[in-house]
Amino acid sequence: MYGDLECVEDRAGVASDVECRLERIAHLELGIDRHAALVAAYIRLGELVQGIADAEFEKAGADEHTSLQQTGSELLLLLAHVLKSSWESGVREQVLPPCQDQLRILAQPGQIRTKQAEGFAFYALYPESYLLAAAQSGLPPSTVVIGIRSIGTSLAAMVAAGLNAGPALTVRPSGHPFDRQLSIAPDLEERILRDRNAPFAIVDEGPGYSGSSLNCVADWLVERGMGEHQVHFFPSHGGELGGAAQEAHLRRWANANRHFVGFDEIVFNDGLLSSWVSAAVGNLTAPMENLSGGAWRRFQDRPSTIPVDTALEKRKFLARTTGGDYLVKFSGLGAFGERKLALGQQLGQKGLTSEPVALCHGFLVEPWVAGDELQLPLKPDQVQQVGRYLAVRARQMAPYAGASLPTLFGMAAYNAGQCLGGGAEERVRNALGDPARFHPQPCCTDNRLHRWEWVVTEDNSLLKTDALDHHAAHDLIGSQDITWDIAGAKVELALTHGHLAQLVEIVRESATADLALLQAMEICYLAFQIGLWTQAAGRCGAAEQAGIAALIQSYSHRLESCVAGQHDTAEGSATAAAAS
Predict the structure, then answer these.
(1) For residue 34, which of 364, 335, 361 has the smallest C-alpha distance?
(2) pTM of the entire structure?
(3) Contact 259, 302 (CB under 8 A)
């Protein structure tokens, strides 16, 4: 169900992007927009430094301390101090130092792999929170700061700035996700352990299901004679380790030195987000309403029929202002939010979605869309509108490569075997066949075409909501061939054969729609939804489980029919069956 999005990029191109961003910042007025632009440049620099370190790791087979990584760490720390002064001054003070010489050193020929930082992209993880956590920790400047790549590269530099410590070092844990291990060369080991009496700050987002990435660094230190009391963790949340954690790690975590400051403390409770939104769209007439965790369903006609996986929901709020109501949703810091703002403006200008009006340091602000819930089956003009929407998306270039067809086919077979049993894995493999016979053309797919994601306005127009995030979400799918969305529409919107043919014809005005690939994508789509909601069921409360169980059963029934070659859609979508 999960996947990591990464890009292969030219090192010099990334360095040039950082330099251009810094040059543009100099022309912005002091304030939150300039601060957000600096965070965007900082995150991009972190990707460059991470990519260089990972490339050297792959070449050497171990983490080393090289002059190139030292230059990158020093530059990150330099900008982290600028961010620190900007944030602590209420974004009224920001002096950019010259960075061109260091960037030229980092801009050597070659390619690097940059990985999407999940916390910055999805989970409202603000690097500024690590500054505050460092300040509250009371640790001295002699602390050795160790970041865990990927996102730990940037976060560790923020901790180092908050402690007035030296440049952070980074490591890349590898191996099984629940049993990560370190491979550290002698030069880096000597650097880390130079002061054996120093505290050690281990910095990353997480912990996740096992917490093994954070704990493997602690294991490595303790094995070399460091005391548990010297180890300090800087995680992204205050929770416990997940269900796959080792017993020894659970015991350590229960008594560990942990330093954490969350989104509410640094952004929300002090009214910062409200002030940013007010500056963008006008004074608020009431406190913002929290719509996270499925609370948005209260605006739906039948909220109890709409399943929610709260673990994957982004923070969102309803802002009521003198000029109207707005949805305020976290869409990503830096380039993550910038790309979604641009996509939302393109779709909004065509009347397909609500057009965003501002990006407030990671939160996208768009007019609140009032209307009726979409009812099934669709009317002919509604099929036309869905087709036009998908045709526009088919022309949008993908920001990240999604899962390959072999990966999708493998996921479908595995999920079917896990959930259906009885030889379902082999039947799905046989039904899908060889992925090499297809030639998909990835685009900026929607990936979220469920009935409740549409609004029918007063003039009977369809508007797509939640349209900007799922092509680059924290899941396996990513950007796919437009047949993925056609398959999603077929399943979720109860398309008849005639409606499906109509939809394909409209989309084909913009892109190829291979019908054989569409059949394969339907199987993959259903198998992914089964995996998605099966995991959600394991995380949600009893009140949600009955609806999710019905949804999984409907997807499973339809998957079995597809694999058997029965593609009749007249019975309706899996979602409609579960809702009924």
Answers:
(1) 361
(2) 0.92
(3) no
